[in-house]
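Hi, here's the filled form for the chain we discussed.

Project: internal
Contact: R.S.
Residues: 105
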Amino acid sequence: MYKIAAMGDRDSIYGFASIGLDIFPEDKMDSPVLTLHRLVDSGYAVIYITEALAQKLEPELEQYKSRQLPVIVPIPGISGNTGMGMKAIGKSIEKAVGSDILADT
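And the returned structure, exactly as it came back:
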């Protein structure tokens, strides 16, 4: 069975534990890079990651974009939305459909 994780600052991801997701608070990680690689190697199918942490790990996240699993989803943190998640979704849709159907007209 696949697992789902959430990575980021404690305040942003703590609520995910209440719905059964495994959480990985940034302040408890020795290395966010190593934690990400360990989650991928441990069979997590979906990894939610706060946009702030995703920006720090962008080179590492890039290597997983072409893989089917895990799906790594940037989410807004408690400090606000940077737009990174929507940009990633827009790129995926454009790649699948061949057009940016989310663009403002």
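Let me know if anything looks off before we file it.
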